[in-house]
Specification:
Number of domains: 2
Bound molecules: 6-O-phosphono-beta-D-fructofuranose
Strand order of the largest sheet: 3-2-1-4-5-10-11
CATH class of the largest domain: Alpha Beta
Order of helices and strands: EHEHEHEHEHEHEHEHEHEEHH
Distance between the termini: 61 Å
Strand content: 15-25%
Number of helices: 11
Length: 323
């Protein structure tokens, strides 16, 4: 029987992680479980940085970005010695369940930990990238998209005023989920994603055609991991042939902060509660996600091995709507 569980946040933070911690702590209280917060992700697990978390410790948290527990990317957890130490500390902390909130790196660590420890581990998808199979959205994605969209709305004003082209770089090292969503929602003229080879000549021709057709300002959204390079590089490569004034704006970590949207708070609340329920019911080695409105469980390995498809129909829609 589960008596005491740990919770940690790991990898890149995302708005809504705090709401997930709150949901874990308060759901655990409803099941009369104790909760130990582990600071700085796996780094804090190795360095024994912990804090007892009762329901009052997570008051006034649901609307705050960042993570109360802090987060880190931890190289030591990739070593055998690190994993052994983590397992020993878990035994010393007296926890029989662990909720890890993070992305694929976090779940790889959890999977390896499960192999050397008896602790039951359940994952909650927390990353702005939305790059995990087994959930329609990850916690933080919706907020990041909304933040980038607001920035694009502002850039559009000045782009129109000066009749300029803007290259706007959004996060996404390997996947284009943020770029695609924000591109369509922000009314972009082009969207460049890592999954689809970028044809720079075609892009340049499309920009010139739109200019000739009377469209004097344009927004091109670039995912940071696009195969043609970062936004500055792409702009430089195209610059001379563009016959229009251009600027580059890299949104960067702005997308990682700020109060979570209602959608992210709801998702975090459902999944934080779902993770505790999964532990109480005796299951381990899975991520809880929300698919078609239902909380579902996916084995860790599938979350990064199975391909989460990009909705390429959105690219065609963007092209139709950008004329
Ligand atoms: O994984 C989340 C993410 O924000 C990516 O979109 C981005 O490429 C990366 O983290 C940035 O990492 P860091 O915060 O270490 O610079």
């Amino acid at each position: 029987m589960m008596k005491r569980i740990g919770v940690l946040t790991s990898g890149g933070d995302g708005p809504g992680m705090n709401a997930a911690i709150r949901a874990v702590v308060r759901t655990a209280a409803a099941y009369e479980l104790e909760v130990l917060g582990i600071r700085r992700g796996y780094a804090g697990l190795l360095d024994e940085e912990t804090v007892e978390l009762g329901p009052r410790a997570v008051a006034n948290l649901i609307h705050r970005g960042g993570t109360l527990l802090g987060t880190a990317r931890c190289e030591e957890m990739r070593t055998e010695a690190g994993l052994r130490k983590a397992a020993e500390n878990i035994a010393r902390f007296g926890i029989d369940g662990l909720v890890v909130i993070g992305g694929d790196g976090t779940f790889r660590g959890a999977q390896e930990l499960s192999a050397v420890s008896d602790v039951h581990v359940v994952g909650v998808p927390g990353t702005i990238d939305n790059d995990l199979y087994g959930t329609d959205a990850t916690i933080g994605f919706d907020t990041a998209v909304n933040t980038a969209m607001e920035a694009i709305d502002r850039l559009r004003d000045t782009a129109e005023a000066h009749e300029r082209l803007f290259f706007v770089e959004v996060m996404g090292r390997t996947r284009g989920f943020i770029a695609l969503s924000v591109g369509v929602a922000g009314g972009a003229e082009d969207i460049l994603v890592p999954e689809i080879r970028t044809d720079l000549e075609g892009l340049s021709a499309a920009i010139r055609e739109r200019l000739a057709a009377g469209k004097r300002a344009s927004i091109v959204v670039v995912a940071e991991g696009d195969d043609a390079g970062r936004a500055f590089e792409i702009a430089e490569k195209l610059g001379h042939g563009l016959v229009m004034d251009y600027r580059v704006c890299v949104l960067g970590h702005v997308q990682r902060g700020g109060p979570p949207t209602a959608q992210d708070r709801l998702l975090a609340s459902k999944l934080g509660a779902g993770a505790v329920r999964t532990l109480v019911e005796g299951r381990t080695g899975v991520m809880v996600g929300l698919m078609n409105g239902k909380v579902v469980e996916t084995p860790f390995e599938q979350t990064w091995r199975n391909d989460k498809a990009l909705d390429t129909d959105l690219l065609y829609l963007m092209k139709v709507l950008a004329r």
